[in-house]
Structure prediction request, 330 residues.
Amino acid sequence: MSSTPENKRPGSTPPPAPSSSPGAEAAGFRSGFACFVGRPNAGKSTLTNALVGKKIVITSSKPQTTRHAVRGIVHRPDAQLVLVDTPGLHKPRTLLGERLNDLVKTTWAEVDVIAVCLPASDKIGPGDRFLVTEAAKVARTPKVALATKADLVEPDRMVEHLAEIAALGESAGIEWASIVPVSATSGYQVDVVADELVKLLPEGHPLYPDGDITDEPEETLVAELIREAALEGVRDELPHSIAVTIDEMGLREGRPEDKPLLDVYANIFLERDSQKGIVIGHKGARLREVGAAARRQIEALLGTPVYLDLHVKIAKNWQTDAKHLRKLGF
Prediction:
């Protein structure tokens, strides 16, 4: 699924690697990095998955689901587009929040194109204005505005929203390279978004081998799928407190080659003992549901039957504790 490069660019992105893509060596081939930025729940992760054509980023109705820069790779005959999905820029309340915001701004400075996601279902607000003002500080990087969630609004509202986006760019001193309505859910204009981003990439060789769709380690992808399953149905204050680590992951020894089984031993970390009951449920019912949902997603991603062993642990107030954050990979 992914390569393991040595040097790294935006959010640990690798250097150019050979590719067997048809036309990859032709004059005019473009390759580079585009990052999706926006407020939490602006549709960044869903759009990343739609462009890549496979689920590599978890999605949830809970805010601030994405916690690191995830790279998805789009292969085309004329280009290789590397998408960097970033956490939602927000007003931080914890050390974790501060680090996520720092990650977003660091990524902006390293990519070739910045795509700002502004959902059509929401009015332009102070958070959007702050984000666009911050993005304007990366003066030399071209910027595209994406009116996401286009399927949720009527045409009249979309016309109004596009005018608001144009005015927002003007007030921040940004000349949008393009403004594109898009719905990742319905597929509306997803191909147009890819075209607009590719136009702004530099000419160059492919950066990843043909067939790679992400450079995320499989253990990271698995941990995220478990976290996604754990997020569903919990109370509003709990999602921020959930983190997942993988203790051990590997193919079980002694199995026939045609009947592999992937063993995954994982921990779900919470901040307080009082939260354990919510995640585990009555007699473990909810934890079993989380495990079943996560296992289905992992099997779909990796194409291998999975045995998943989950344990719930407490890392007290980990979002504000630098030592815990390091242990959990932040």
Q: What stands out?
A: Strands lie at 30-37, 70-76, 79-85, 113-117, 143-147, 178-181, 243-251, 262-270, 306-314. The longest strand covers residues 243-251. Residues 155-172 form the longest helix (18 residues).
